[in-house]
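Protocol step 6 of 9: fold each sequence in the batch and record its C-alpha cells directly after the sequence line. For illustration, a two-sequence batch is reproduced in full.

Sequence one:
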Amino acid sequence: MKKFNVLLLLIALFYKPHSFYGQQSDRLYLSFAATGRVYDITGISGTVSLPTPLASPVPTTAAEASNLAVGYDNPGGNPNSIVFINSDITANAPIYKNGVQMNPPVTGPNAQIGGIGTNNVPGTYFGRVYGFQSNTKILYPIYPSGATLPITAAAGDTDWNAGTTFGTDTFFDYENNIYTFLNNSANTARYLYKIAIATGVATKAVQLTGPVATVAGIRGMAYLNGLVYTATLTGTQGGTANTIQINSINISTGVSTAVATINIGSNFGNLDLASVPYYVPFTFTCNGAAFQGNSTFSTGYPSTRTVRIPISNVYGPGTYTINVSGTDFATTSQNVTIAAGSTFIDIPVTYNGTGAAGQKTATIRLGNSSTVCSVTATAEASFGCNSSMYISQNTTVYNVNTTSNPFTFPAVGSYTGNINSIGINPVDGLMYGTVDNSNTIVRINASGTFTLMGAVSGLPTGVTFNAGEFDATGNYYVKQSGSNATLYRVNIATMSATALTLSQAINISDFAYRTADGRLYSVSSDTDGRLLSINLSTSPATVTFIGANSSLIPFGAMFASSTGEVYGSLNTGGFYQFNLTNGQRTLISSSPASNSNDGAHCVTAPIAFSADLYATVTDGATTYSPGSPVTYTVVVGNNGPFGVQGATVTVPLPTGIPAANITYTAVGAGGATSSVTGTQTGAVNDVVNLPLNGTVTYTITVNIPVAYTGNLTTTVNVTSPANSTDPNTANNTATDTNVQSVCYNPVTNTAAGIDTRVGITLQKNPNVGNGNWPFTRKSAHVAIESNSQGLVVTRMETAALSNITTPQEGMMVFDTTVKCLKIYSDGAWRCFSVPSCP
C-alpha cells in the first residue's frame, strides 16, 4: 500500500478569553440602587442620560441593586450560563441570581460589602463571586459563601499595610488576581493592587494618574477590553443635578481618562459596575498557531521546535512568562516581550523523545493562568541510529535483513513515485530522499509513511539525483546522476541547497559518508569501477581514486560504519566491504540483485557482522630432531555466516628459533586473499580477507638449530576486525608441540660379528699383516685408524645440498652452514648432533 501524509498539526483552544461567551459578554453593566435597575453602558461617552434599563434582572427592592456581579454560574451547576448576581450592601444581605433570591437561600457575610465581582477565569475559581468589606482590606467569598481570605503584602511593600482602601469594588485578571484601590498612608498616591486568590499576597500593580487619582470616591469598578472602568457618584441626597462620572484606566500605565458623565437628576444611591471579561494582556489566536520550519519530532530524539501563535488585542505591552508542559514534553518557561504592535509570539517547544509514535499535545500557558493554547503535533516513528541498513528501489524502501546469509530485503513502505538518494539523518533518525525528475524531498519514517516536504531552493529541477547521504551533523548531500562535477549540500531545516564543486567530473551511483575522515566514498560507475573518495573539506572537493580497476560494478547502494568500514551492495547481487587502501572488495554476504537503487544507514552507528573464524596448525609429527627442518601447514578459515575483511593472522616465532630460520608462503582459496606475496621469512603477521568458507593456507618451514633443546611449540592466532563478531573464539587459536627425539639403542647382537677385510691405518699397528687387524674391527666394510689425522667427507653449505642430484639414503656430507655432519634419510638431510635413531 502506498502511504502519504503530512505532519498532523492540530491547534485547539482550551479557553479563549473574549470569544466564547454568550450574548451578554463583552458588555459593561451599571447597577443603580436609586432606580433598582441594571443598565448596559457599553461604549458610553460624553454627557448622557441613563439609557433604557435591561428588562432583566429587576431586583425585588431597589437596594438590592447596590452590588452587581456578572459571570458564569459554575457554582450553580450551569457553567455555560451567564447570570447576574446582585445584593444590598448590608450585612447578611440575601444574594439574588437574575433578580430572584437563591434557593436554598444564600446570604452575604456579617459585614457591609462595598462591591462584588465574579471570577470568570476558567479553572479552580471559575464562577465564584467575591467582595470586599466596605472601606477595608477584608475579602469575602460571596457565592459560594465562606470565611474571609487573609491578605498579606508582597515582600518589600510598605503601602499595603499602612494605606487605606479607597474603592472596594473589584475585577479579576487571567491569573486569578482580584483588584482593588488603595491610598498610601500620606494620602498622596493612589494605587491599583492585585491580590492572588490562591495565596492572599497583595502586589502593587500600578500607580494611578489622571482623574481617578484624585476623584473623591469610587463606587464601581469593572474591566472591559483592555481598560478598567470606574464609576463615581457626584451630588447629594435630595440634589437635582447629580451625576455619575465614568472614567477609564489603562491597566499597564495607570493613566486614567474621563469617559462619560451620566446625568441622573435627583437620583442618589449606591451603584456598581460589572462585566464578564477578565483582564488578559493580549489574546491568543490558537487556531492560527503553527510550527515553524520543516523539521519534525521523532521518537528517541529530543528536539526543540518553534511554534508561532498569532496574538491580538495587546492591552498590556510588557514582558510575560509563557509556560510549556505536556506528556513527553519538557516543562519550560520563557519570558516574551510583547509590544503594542506585536502580532505573534514564538515559543520553543521541546519534545523529550520519549513515548510511542503518534500525536503529542503540549500546553502553552500564559503565566500560571488558564489562558492556554493546546498544540498537538505528531512524533514520527524514527529509524534510529543503529546497525540497520536500507535500500530504495523505484517507489519502495526496503530493510536490509542481515540476520542470515544471503541477505533479504523486506519492504518498509512505498511512495507514489520513484525516490532515490536516500539517507538517514542522525539528528532526527528519519530517512530522507529525493523524488526523481524533481528538486523535491520526501521524509520517510519507520512506519513506512512518506511526507512530501516540497522543493529545495538551490537544487535544479527536472533532473534525477541518484546519490544521497547525511554527514554526522545532519547535512544532506546529493548528486545528480551521470558524469558531472557538482555536489549539493542540503539544509533540511531551511530546505535550501548549496552547490559544491568537485575537482573532476565523476559518474557514480551512490556514496557513503565516513565519520572517521569526513569523506564521501563511492565507486565509479564507469568501466574502470574504481573506489573513490571525496574530500569535503577542500574547495573544490577533491576526488581521489583508490586502487586498481574492477569489473564489480555498479554499486547502487553504499554504506559506511561509524567504526570506519565502507560497504556496498552490488546491483547484480552481493554485499561487499571495500579496502580503503587498495580498493579491494571482499564478499560479506550474498544478497538479491537490485537495480535503480540507493542505500541508507545512520553514519554515527556501527555496522557489524558475525563470522566464526578458525585456525589449525600441524607438521604431521610429534617429535623433532635438532639441526633438521620442520614443515607446518597452517590454515585459517571462515565458517560464516558472513564474510570478513581485515582479519589478522599471527604465527609468532617459536621460542629460541631465529627469524632467519623460518620461511613461509600463503595461498588463498574460496575467494580468500592474503597480504603475503612470495616467500617471506620470520614470524607471520598477515591481514586476510575471508568470505564465507574461504581459507588461507600457510606453508611454514622451520630450520631447527643444532643446539636447540626443549619442546618445539608453534601457535597460530586469527583475530576478527572491529566490525565482525566471532560467536566461537575457542577455535581462533591452535598450537602444535613437538618433543625432541633422542634414541639410545642398546647393543642387540651377541655374536662376535664378521671380520672387517679392508683397513687403512697410520698407527703402525703391530697386528697388521698377522691376521689380527683389521679383522678385529668386526662387521665393517672399511676400517680407518689414525692418531693424528681425520677423515674429511664432502663439505658444502646448506643451500648447496639441493645441488646433489638424487641423493641416496645414507649419503653423508658436512654442512658448513649449520656445522654438523648430515645424513640423507627419509627424504631429508639430518644432522648427527645428539644420540638419535635416524
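Sequence two, same batch, same settings:
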Amino acid sequence: MQPSRIDGVPVLLTDGPPPFTAGLVFGVGRRDESFVHGGITHLVEHLAMAAVGRTVVDANASVDLTTTEFTAAGTPDQVAAFLESVCRALADLPVDRLAVEADVLRAEGGSVAPPGVAVLLGELYGATTFGLAAAPEPALRSLTGDDVRAWAARWFVRQNAALWVSGPGVGAIRLPLADGPAPVREAARSLPVSSPAWTGSPLDDRITLGALVTDEPALSATLEVLRLRVEEELRHRRGIAYAVGTEQVAIGPDRTFVALSTDVRDGQASVAAEVLWRQVQRLAGEGPDQGEIDHQRSVLAESVADPRWSVAEARSLARAAVRGLPPVTTADLLRDAAALTPQALQECARRLRAAALLSVPEESAPAGLQQVPAWSTELVDGVEHRPGRRSGAPDGARLVVGDTGVSVVLGTDEQVTVRWTDAVGLVREGPDELRLYGRDGFAVPLVAADWRDGAAVLARASAEVPAGLQVTADQEGGGVLLLLAPPYRVREAVGMTRTDAVIVTNERWTGIVVDDEQAASDRAVELAGVAGRRTVALLLRQGHADVDYVLLRAGVEVDRHRWGGAPGDAALLAELTDVPEEVLAGVLAADGTPDEVVARVVTALGLPGEVVDLLAGRDVATVERVAGRGALAGFRSAMRGDSAPPPGSGNWADRWFALSNSRPGWYRAANAVSAVALAVLTVRLLTVDGELTGWRIAGAVVCAGLLFSSLRDVRRAPAVARDGGHPAR
C-alpha cells in the first residue's frame, strides 16, 4: 500500500488487477443527519451525479450510515475526468433539479442498512445518529437549495475526504475540492436498553441478532463461527432458511455493533429464533473447537491471496481515514488470526451473549428472554384531553399535554411520551394532523379531530417545538379539488360528512385540498348530494415536471388532460364551466413550466388565486377549515343557518331559506297573519258540520304543520342569523 496525497486529500494506492479503479470517499452518511433533514446526504450525491451527466466510464455513487463514495473504473484518463467532475459538481450543485431528485429518492426507497440491522440500531439509538437507519426521511421535498449547498460545504471538503486507487499509479487525477474545517460529529449515545432481550420486528421473514460490544481481535472470527453453526442447522439440516449473513458497524474507535441475520420460511420464525439463541449460548458456554479456528485462518489466507484483496484493503483504509477509525491492515488481520485461541473466542461469545438483542416477529421470541419495552415508562403531568366525538382513538384513551411534553395513554401500561426537550421533529402530515418524534424513537400522533379541544393541542405543540424542527411531510399524489359551487353550498355539504376540509374560495369556485385521485373522486361524490347532483368538479394537480387535471361531474370522471401529454376535450370543459372554448383551447395547448401553466389555468377558469400556492406546496394563510359534523349535526347546523348564503345570493330556495333564518320584521308580521289564518282553517276543518272524512283530517294535519312553522318564524332570529354572518371557525 502506497500512501500519498493529491491536492491535500490522502490517497491509498495499490497495484490491483485491471481495470484502473478509484473511489473518492467522504466521511458523511445517514448517521450525521438530523431527523427532519433525513436524506440530505443522498440528495447531494444524486445532484452531483446529475451534474456529471452521462459518461463512458463505469461509475457509481452510494451513501451508507457513515460514508459517501463516488467510484469509477476505466482508463486512467476517464477515471481522472470523472473524479474532477464530481469535485466541481459538489461546489456548484444543480439545485434546480431538487424536486426531481427528491422524487427519485422517494421512488428508490433505499436503505442505509439491512432491514433487520436497522430495527436493532433504532432500538439502541432511537431517532438519532445510528438509529436513523430505522427512521423515515419525512420531508425530502422541503429541503431547499440553501440546505443542500450548506450541507455540501460542511461535509464534502478535502479535510473530510480520502481517495483509494487500484492501478499502476494515480495518473492525472486532480481533486479540486473546497477547503473547510474537519467536521465535528455528534457523539453516538446509546439508550439504556437492558440485555439480553428481544424486540418485536415488523419483518415476518427475518430473524436478526445484534450486539453493541467492544472491538477486539477475536470478534470477526467469533461472529463467523456462529454464522456457520446457524447456517448448518437452519439451511443444511432443517431446510427452513437460505442465507445467513453478518454485519459489522463501527460505532467508534473501540465500539462495534455486530449482527447475524437469517431469512426464514413462513411459519418457522419461532424455530429459527430458538436455534439462533441456542447456538449463541452454546458458543459462549463451550467455546469453539480447534478445527473451527483453523478453518477461519485458512479462509483468511485464501482471501489475502486473491489479487482483489489489495483493492478491498485500500478501500477499507480510506473509509477508516475519513471516519477517524484506527487503520486495520492485512498484517494486523494475519497477526490477530495467528493469535486466536478457543478461550478468546469463548470470552468474546460471552460478551456478545450478554449484550444481545434479538429482533423477531411477535410470538416468536425464545423462552427466558426479557422484552425491550414497547411503550414509554413515564407519563407527563398536564391537561387531559378525552377523545372527540369522531375520534379514531380507542375507547378510554386520553391525551395529556403539559409543560414538559405530551403523552398519549391507550390502556393499562400502554402509553407513549415525548418530552418537548427531546423532540427531534414535528411533522405535519395533513390539515390538522401532526406527528411528534422523540429522541428515543417514540412518536405521538396529534390529530385535532381525535381529541376534545384538539386544535389547542396542535397549537401548543407548534409553539413548544423549535421552528427548525417542524416540517411538512412529503405527500403522494394530491392536488386541489375545485367544485363549481358557491362556498356556502360546500360548507353545508362538508358539514354533513364526517371528514373535515380545508377550503379556499372566490364565491364561484370552491377548492378543497385532497390527498390523491381516489380521495378526490370519493369526495366529489360525497359532496354532490348537498352541493348538487350535477356538480362539476376539477381535480388539478401539479408535479415538478407536469400539470394535469381530471374533470368530474357528480363524482364521475368525464375527461382528463395532461399538458405536454394526453390532451383533453376543450369543448367539454367549456360546456361545463361556461368559459369560451377558444380561450380554453389556447390554455390546454399552452407550453411552459408547471408554475406558468397553473397560472394560466387559474386565470382562464377564474379559480381562486390561492390555488397557485397550494399546488406549489406553499403555505396559504387564507384557507378556511370546515368541520365535518356528520349527517345529524350537519343538518342541525344547516337549520341554524350556519351555512346560509350571503343576502341576495343563491337560488329562490336559498333566498327563502335565508329569509327563514334572518326573519326581518315584515316577514315575522306576515307569518303572524298566516298563523292566525291557519289556526282558523284548522279549527274549521275539524269542527264544521258533516262527516269527518279522511281528506278533512289530512288537511287539518297539513294546516297544523304549517301553523307551527309560521309560529316558529314569528319569533326573532338568533343574532348570528340576523347579522347574515357565519359562526367563527
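Proceed to step 7 once all outputs are recorded. Observation for sequence two: The chain has five domains: 2-166, 197-371, 384-470, 479-626, 649-722.
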